[in-house]
Design goal:
This protein has 130 residues and is an all-alpha fold. The protein has one domain (2-127): Monooxygenase, CATH 1.20.1280.20. It has 5 helices and no strands. The longest helix has 27 residues, at 73-99. The chain is flat, with a radius of gyration of 19 Å. The N and C termini lie far apart (41 Å). Keywords: Chaperone, Cytoplasm, Mitochondrion.
Length: 130
């Protein structure tokens, strides 16, 4: 595109950026699900929404505590495995909810996925030495 007109170069750059953004959105199950909700006109759950059940919130707190107390690589790997299993389970449940066209259930499950995405970010931060 170096020999093209400046207008064509600009157009190409803009579309390349949009394609990369779309690819990144569709690559991640959480962002993909949130996008599908948005396309359907459903607002994603906000952090101030209190729809999460107490058993789920207790589970999240326990994983957070384990993560905070973890000192060894083995403990971190155990937590990482747990988080991955939960994320895969939620991904399957969200897919099933979308297939049934149950957008409210998908919204609740995506809110739970956000919690596990936050745990995954905390885990990655702990694994990377400062």
């Amino acid at each position: 595109f170096a020999v093209r007109l400046q207008k064509e170069q600009f157009y190409s750059e803009q579309h390349s950026s949009l394609i990369n953004k779309a690819y990144q959105t569709l690559l991640n199950p959480l962002s993909r699900g949130l996008y599908l909700l948005e396309l359907s006109g459903v607002e994603p759950a906000q952090e101030t929404d209190c729809d999460a059940d107490s058993a789920f919130l207790t589970e999240i707190m326990e994983i957070n505590e384990k993560l905070a107390e973890s000192k060894t690589e083995d403990n971190l790997e155990e937590i990482e495995t747990l988080i991955k299993v939960k994320q895969e389970e939620l991904t399957r449940e969200v897919a099933a909810a979308f297939e049934r066209d149950d957008l409210q259930e998908a919204k609740k499950l995506l809110a739970k996925m956000k919690y596990f995405a936050n745990l995954e970010d905390k885990l990655k931060a702990k694994k990377i030495p400062s």
